[in-house]
TrEMBL record:
InterPro entries: FAD-bd_PCMH, FAD-bd_PCMH-like_sf, FAD-bd_PCMH_sub2, FAD-linked_Oxidoreductase, Oxid_FAD_bind_N. It holds the Pfam family FAD_binding_4. It comes from the Eukaryota. Belongs to the oxygen-dependent FAD-linked oxidoreductase family. This is FAD-binding domain-containing protein.
């Protein structure tokens, strides 16, 4: 999965704020999402500075296509889905400020802040919270749609931890969205929250960090271990009973020429909030599958994303052309998984240029605290899923 932008735009990006001609939409975009010519287009720089600039905080940067920073400010993880017709990016200074931690029970996280910054800032202050897993994604984007991450087994989804959203509506008014203010919107924005308005900041519950290190164990298995691996993954996650500290395992069926030039390998990494001893006891079923290679170790929480390829600049964050789809599951059908591997392998052999980037990706999160939340309380619809693939 993923990519990176590095730490590009540290702020909200206003798409199509002004645009002249109506850029041709991607053919896959349904008509009702096409740009409509109801915003002013081709507005001169001086006018933008006068009208918009005067409303923004000191230090805010307005970036136009002719500016040196344009490529950086508009870089996309997936270059296949770049928005067209973008004419202006606004990087508000105040929205990229570091979070504050009022009173030690919650943190105020700015609308444009990246997960990596949230994790590092909280950890340094002695706290953790639920976020998405990948450092180069914003905090708010995933938190509006649920937000799967390594702390969800212990503390629930990122959206379950949000206690207030500061929102600017389309009419320019600002509202607070929480259980007492616009509570219907709060229900919707905890799981189906994109595009009701712009979230300028979110207040999220935080937790005192109780452990100093996370244990990781990465395995590479040959493809003939597929059946035993998926049977054990099914047992591991059965009925959502994965230990809550076993944050997540990410897996890839992938062609890795370092191991095998013709056949895929199974590359899996597990991350556990606690000691090596406790983790390895739980990982015994996987330790018993003979591996081509293994690595394990213990790192402070902010480093676990890098171990799992999801830190800024890492493989999960690279910007390039991507096409993909995903599915939520309760258990793996082992017969189907074999068919998927066979099809993947045959497709990679027929189109060798895909083999370097092609992957079947698996995510198995701990779900205890996610399932402890009554599904009627939020709009998040997938509490029953145990796996993502
Ligand atoms: C590399 C990568 C890794 C990922 N890893 C995870 C993961 O570990 N866990 C997980 O749950 N999901 C993950 N996802 C999926 C992710 O949750 C969604 O793609 C999410 O919408 C991305 O948020 P973003 O901040 O990048 O927002 P964008 O892609 O910029 O925006 C996504 C949507 O949210 C809206 N939006 C963004 N910010 C705001 C705001 N402040 N106010 C109002 N609306 C806003 C945008 O208008 C848009 O509709 C990942 C995605 C990628 C690309
Ligand atoms: C892009 O801009 C951000 C914010 O100004 C900066 O931190 C980052 O280094 C830039 N990246 C590149 C590749 O220029
Ligand atoms: C590659 O994988 C195939 C099938 O799993 C196996 O028969 C072959 O020995 C492997 N090659 C190497 C170099 O390990
Ligand atoms: C598992 O997948 C196989 C092959 O696609 C299918 O025939 C079978 O019915 C599936 N089993 C279940 C329990 O869904
Ligand atoms: C993978 O594809 C290669 C090349 O077509 C083939 O030799 C090999 O047998 C295939 N392996 C599997 C497990 O399908």
């Amino acid at each position: 999965m993923n990519t990176l932008f590095g730490r590009i735009a540290c702020g909200l990006v206003f798409l199509q704020f002004v645009g002249t001609s109506i850029a041709l939409p991607h053919p896959a975009v349904p008509e009702y999402f096409h740009n409509a010519p109801f915003t002013r287009r081709d507005v001169p720089v001086a006018q933008i500075q006068r009208e918009l600039g005067s409303l923004l905080s000191k230090g805010t940067v307005i970036i136009r296509p002719s500016d040196a920073g344009w490529a950086n400010a508009t870089e996309r993880w997936n270059t296949a889905t770049e928005p067209r017709g973008l004419e202006l990016v606004v990087r508000p200074a105040q929205e990229s400020d570091v979070s504050t931690i009022p009173g030690g029970k919650s943190a105020l996280i700015q609308g444009g802040q990246y997960i990596g910054d949230v994790v590092r800032t909280l950890w340094a202050a002695g706290y953790v919270t639920s976020t998405g897993s990948n450092n180069c994604v914003g905090f708010v984007g995933p938190a509006l749609g649920g937000g799967h991450g390594r702390y969800q087994g212990l503390h629930g989804l990122a959206s379950d931890n949000v206690i207030n959203l500061n929102v600017v509506l389309a009419d320019g008014s600002t509202i607070k969205v929480n259980k007492d203010s616009h509570s219907d919107l709060f229900w919707a924005m905890q799981g189906a929250g994109h595009n009701f308005g712009i979230v300028t900041s979110a207040e999220s519950k935080i937790y005192r960090r109780k452990i100093d290190t996370w244990h990781y164990h990465n395995y590479v298995w040959s493809q003939d271990k597929l059946e035993v691996l998926f049977e054990r993954l099914n047992a591991f996650h059965k009925d959502g009973k994965t230990p809550p500290e076993m944050g997540v395992e990410f897996g890839s069926v992938i062609i890795n020429p370092a191991f095998n030039t013709t056949d895929p390998v199974l590359s899996w990494n597990f991350a556990y909030a606690g000691s090596a001893k406790d983790a390895e006891k739980i990982l015994k079923p996987f330790n018993d599958i003979p591996a081509l290679s293994q690595q394990k170790g213990d790192v402070p929480y902010p480093e676990i994303a890098g171990i799992q390829g999801m830190a800024e600049g890492g493989p999960g964050c690279l910007s390039n052309l991507k096409a993909g789809t995903s599915v939520g599951l309760r258990s793996y059908n082992v017969t189907s998984q074999r068919q998927i591997l066979t099809l993947f392998n045959a497709t990679m052999a027929s189109y060798p240029s895909l083999a370097a980037g092609g992957v079947v990706f698996y995510e198995g999160y701990s779900t205890k605290a996610v399932q402890a939340v009554d599904p009627v309380l939020t709009a998040y619809p997938h509490r029953d899923d145990l796996h993502l693939a």
